[in-house]
Structures are given as C-alpha cells and as structure tokens.
Amino acid sequence: MSESNKSTIIIMKPNGKTRRYNVSSKMIFLLIVSLVILPILGIIGGIASIESWRMKSEWITQCQALQQQVDRDKIEIERLGLLVSQAKKSTSNKSVSIASNTVDKKIVQIANPSFRYLGERKFRLVMELYSVTQPSPVEGRILFSVITANGDVYPLSHDDTSFYIIRFKKVVAQANIPIININMDGASMLVEVLSQGTVIFRNKYPIIQSTLQP
Length: 214
Fold this sequence. Notes:
Layout (H helix, E strand, L loop, with lengths): L5 E7 L5 E7 H63 L5 H8 L2 E2 L3 E12 L2 E10 L6 E10 L5 E3 L1 E2 L3 E4 L2 E9 L11 E8 L2 E12 L5
Parallel strand pairs: 4-12
Antiparallel strand pairs: 1-2, 3-12, 4-5, 5-10, 6-7, 6-9, 6-11, 8-10, 11-12
C-alpha cells in the first residue's frame, strides 16, 4: 500500500515523548463509521425490543379482553334463552333451580338493597357491593331478575352494572321487565354477581312496590 493512502496519527505524552502511527485512510474511515453506526444500531435495537414488548403486551391484553367478552356473551345467550322461554309462558325447571339456589363464595357482600317497582314494568335498583377479599380487587358484573310468587324467573333489561372494586361500590340502575302483565304480588328480586363467567353470589330480596318516579 502506498504511503499516500496512509495517514499519520501523532500521540504526545506529558513527558514530551511522541509516537507516530501510520494508519491507512480506509482504517480511519472504518473506525469513524463504526463509532457512529454502532450506537445508532444499539438505539434501533433497543427501540425494536421495546416496541416488540409493547405489541406482545397489547396482544395479551386483547386476548384476555376477548375471552372475557366470550364469557359474557355465553351468559347473555343463556339469559336470552330463558327470557324467550318465559315469554312463551313455558315452565322452565332450570329457572326454578336457579332461583331456589343461593350462592355465596365469600368474595363479595351486598348491603342496603332497595329494589323498587315503579309500575309500567320499570324498576329502580339500589344496593351497595363490598369486596370481602380486599385488598385484592374483584371484577365482574351484576344481573337482576324478577321471581314471581309461583317461581317463574324474568331477567331484567337494565343499565350496565359492570364493576371493578377493591373495597366498595354503590350500584344505582334503572331496569325494565320485558314481559307485560306480570303479577308482582309476592315477587322478589334475584341478584346474581358474576366474576370471570362464574356466579360468585346469588340471593333473593323483597321488591318494594311504589308509584314514585326514580
């Protein structure tokens, strides 16, 4: 390699001594390029790793949300099937069984329930929901149904009652019963609390009949 293609690097020490190094221009160019490119590649690699982790986290979250939606849809389909059965005035052994069995898995507790029938198929639902497992959070939703004196069960169409609680949540909802001409004498309110597609609480409560508006 000719001397014209080389550069001289002079290093001077504090004691006055100097050293000369002849380095090819290509080597100097490669060194400069490496000092510039390697940090950039490191930054790009770090950004790619963070983005990959973020996308994986979003994918996991979406899968969990989809599974929860599937569980909710299954429950809703069961309720709609029950509603159709009741609308046709057929006797449902399953509905009687659901109404007669209480469930309490010691995860949540209901206090101060007030279920008022306002007439014209309208209800005002008020209750307090407490977590028994605090400080662990509880997530789910609440379903309401009317049980007549002869044991027929009529699911209510009501506001969204999804919840995420660590300690306490007050539930206030408006509801409608889709069936006309139901005898409310002796009827009660069936409250079902579901979490992850499983009934964790179920109990019956008296219904207050009133003409007051909500």
